[in-house]
Amino acid sequence: MNATIEVRGLRKRYGSTVAVDGLSFTVEPGQVTGFVGPNGAGKSSTMRMIMGMDRPDEGSALIGGRPYRTLRSPLCQVGALLDASAVHPGRRARDHLLWMAHSNGLPVRRVDEVIDLVGLRPVARRAAGGFSLGMRQRLGIAAALIGDPAVLMFDEPVNGLDPEGITWIRGLLRSLAAEGRAVLVSSHLMSELEGSADHLVVIGRGRVVADTSVQELLTAASSGRVMLRTGRRQEAMTVLANAGASVAANGPDTLTVSGLAAERIVALLNEGGVSFSGIAEHRASLEEAYMELTRDAVDFRGATGAAGGPGSADADGTAAGGAGGSASSSASAGREQR
Amino acid sequence: MTTTTTRFQSSVSGVRDDGAFVSTGRLVRAEWTKFRSVRRWILGVLAMAVLTVGMGLFIASGSGTDANTRPEEVTVGPGGARVHDVFQFTHRPLQGDGGITARVTSLKSADGREMAGWAKAGVIIKAGTKPGSTYAAVMVTPGHGVRLQSDFTNDVAGKSRAIPGWLRLVRAGTSVTGYESADGRTWRKVGTVTLPELPQRAEIGLFATSPGVFKVQREFGSTSVGQSTSVVAATFDGVDVQSRQQAASWNNTVVSPSRAGGDEFQGNDFQGTQSAGTFTLRGQGDIAPRPDGDDPVRLPFTGVMIGMIAAIALGVLFITAEYKRGMIRTSFAASPRRGRVLAAKAIVISAVTFATGLVATVILFFASQPVLRSGGFAPPAFPEPSLTEPRIMRAVVGTALFLALVAVFSLGVGTILRRSAGAIAGIITLLVLPTIIASALPISAATWMMRLTPAAGLSIQQTSRHYPQVESVCVPEDGCYYSEPWAGIGVLVAYTAVALGLAYWLLRRRDA
Amino acid sequence: MTRTLPIPTLLTRTLLTRTLYAEWTKLRTLPGSGWSFAGVVAVTVALSIAFTASVDAAHCPAPQGCHEDTTKLTLSGTWLGQAAVVVLAALVITNEHATRMIQTTLAATPRRAVVLFAKAVVVAGVVMAAAVLGVAGSLLTGRFFLEGNGFTAANGHPPLSLGSEPTLRAAFGTVLYLVLVGLLSLGAGALLRDTAGTITAVLTLFYIAPVAVQFVGDPHWRERLEKAAPSAGMAVQATRNLDRLPIGPWAGLGVLAAYAACALLAGGAAFIRRDP
């Protein structure tokens, strides 16, 4: 079977809320696909529809070309961690995996293999109700891996894991993808995916905002922006604006220039006799690129940015909310929604 | 760099400790908010009311009686209550004051069958021979000694238990005094009664009668209560009427609502003969209040058996829902005194179920009256009940109280078990099953089962009047396993108290 | 890119047997299941003992005149056993909804109909095993207590024996009765999803008619109630005076079977159509 997830025109509404609004993307084998969007963007709903839990109102979600509900041994084709707390608290961890093995005709030795794989051996005979969030997360991952499937889906897998666990799961995701599996990992924090995802599907308000590789996204987010440090700000702005660039002031002696290449800026400034102390091409972080993309797609924004407001982490200040219209990224594929 | 530290001041005030009463009051408000904000629970309370009323009306409409098919046979006593007034009466008129003295020489069964303890023979003064008219009598009984009885409901015990024995009745105006004597010389006063309705010209004389003997048979899951008739024969001598008029002749009358003794009486059931100063009276029937065989007021209230299932679920879920979602930790974080949380929950759930239950029972009482009347539960056999009568009020309020107690009991059990499944199934079974299986058990076993399970609380619903001077059979499933209606509620209160106590103890000991 | 599966799956097993095996493992590995199972047996036998120990032939008009249906009396523990069956069967499905385990179940076996069918088979099997033990225990203890209380062969009450056709029918029918109660509860659980709601609703359904019969005076209404309610299935326990029953033994069980079928169909339809 083809190890892919194909989502085509998926639409789902719960009551009056449209959770997923015409979503289409493909998860390819051999790479980790990050599935990113703010809270309430429709990530979990999409994954539930891929798993055949919820029926889409329109469109389809296929695994290797088939709907989940028609799979005969689904655990051998798709492994999923949707809700780590979805275990019976009274049942022992090993027994939880045991019935799952039985349900898909897997040999019992597989149960012990995945227990060792996720490192739950010492607590395998304890009731799952007493597990910490991290242990439950590991149990959920063991359940996803029990059929050694070619497609894997993890909904917020690092939730509740300690730093060591996060490192472990990143390595696990990479190695699973390296074995040729299609791996879909959802997160509401782009930074969690930094270093593990190869491809990104960014959604907001139920729609795809971006479907791109991590490399492309970073390039697009940083492309054409140059940081310029000069004591003669006013003159520099005039010269560059006349040449067709858009210029924004970030500080007393810092400018962000877009629309001109760095070499051309240097030439122009030298021609105009404007001195400058530094020039550098801007490199956006993944988080920054993501903020750019989802600015309009955030459903639930705090009333005041008291703590952790959008873009507050950025030292350069380039992305600091709408200061001078400098944020006109070319990567905003999803802008048509506004 | 110098920094000034400002002391943090909460912008919310009012966090004071106001003592147990006020803090519990706040908790009650909190619990009430919890309760009313879950739509399912509000629906559950409504379901409790609707099920109680609906089931009650169904039971009322499925019940009927033929007690009024021959209204001429329904005898009503001076107080308006339904009475038995059937006896052999050997009498003569008495104008104004006077009296009668006689010796009962024997009181025996006349048909060879077992004689009832309340068979009776003695001297009587009565307004006339019309059944239900006012009377006073002093009599001997095989099982209960000498009695002075009047107007059906009054009953005063004498000292003597011996037969033969002398009896005397003296009238002065509207008061009648009864005496007893072993030898006819030294007399002991049994008591004096006042008969306001006694006319100047009354009938005075001898009487004999006997109620039937009850036979209760349980078979095939159904109970048959049979009353076999019992005819007694009494002999009197030394009969002496003290009167200012000249002696009149004796008449023999069968006092009975049905014409000429009625069809149900055998020809020789009643007889009055006299020879050489010895009077022999043979009779059956009774002079006594007639216990309501059916309890038509209680019937619709038994619908609470189904309505209470909702109260059980509510009581249990009010606490187990918090355990299921871990909400209990939030509750205890908000108020660490766990006993007060439990108390607040008990107050809220009992108030809600009592108030809703009371509305339901009042509606049910009024709605069921026309239904019951059309089923035959109508005057004269069944006097119209009024909500202001204490026994009716007790059933109406008591049924709502029963619901409230069941809900609190369920809250206690829910706290103990922390799981809804077992608690709900267990309590429903504990409360409903006894009523269902009682009829299949022998009477004594069924009575004890009904007395000892929390379902005993349903005894509050009985509105029948019971009289010690009347033998009556009431099978336990009819609600009279306790003759005192409040006793059953006491049992339920005890269960509730134990459940709450244990719940409180466990709450304090256990981790949340 | 296509991967080959390194795990040898037991492909010889059909989907149904695999699901059955999984459901059995699930039930078996829950610590509460053993207690529920023991509970069904214990309460059934306990109430039966209470019944048979409380009757005495001396209460009858004459020892020979006792018309007590001793078989039915001995099996009366079913009244209590069925409540435990309702809890056990309802939890099989409602507990999965409560813990959201149902998502894992449906991820492992996406065919809803197969999952529900497997649950029905497992519930039926477990309830049947418990019922057989409960009925056997009731009959054995009943035999002992009844003989001690004067219900002897000399009085027209031969010891309870499965050799007699009516007693065998009553015993077998009681096992079926409890199995049907379990299936009805499972169907109701699939329909309602909530544990408390399911147990409350099913027990109300079972108790409403027997309660009403106690109070409704009109014999026609009583007969209608006893015929139409699911508790009509208890008629299968009668061994005497069958002509006086409101409904025949097998017909009564048929009424319950109809209820169970309706509950399973309605629950199944809801389970298949609804998103968990």
UniProtKB/TrEMBL annotation, chain A:
InterPro entries: AAA+_ATPase, ABC_transporter-like_ATP-bd, ABC_transporter-like_CS, P-loop_NTPase. Transmembrane segments: none annotated. Keywords: ATP-binding, Nucleotide-binding, Transport. This is ATP-binding cassette domain-containing protein. It comes from Actinomadura rudentiformis. The keyword Nuclease does not apply. The keyword Transport applies. Belongs to the ABC transporter superfamily. Residues 301-338 are annotated as: Disordered. SUPFAM superfamilies: P-loop containing nucleoside triphosphate hydrolases. One of its GO terms (molecular function) is ATP hydrolysis activity. Residues 5-230 form the ABC transporter domain. Residues 326-338 have a biased composition (Low complexity). Pfam families: ABC_tran.
Automatic annotation (TrEMBL), chain B:
The chain crosses the membrane at residues 41-60, 299-321, 342-367, 392-417, 424-449, 486-507. Coiled coil: none annotated. GO terms for cellular component: plasma membrane. GO terms for molecular function: ABC-type transporter activity. Keywords: Membrane, Transmembrane, Transmembrane helix. It holds the Pfam family ABC2_membrane_2. PANTHER family: INTEGRAL MEMBRANE PROTEIN-RELATED, MEMBRANE PROTEIN. This is ABC transporter permease subunit.
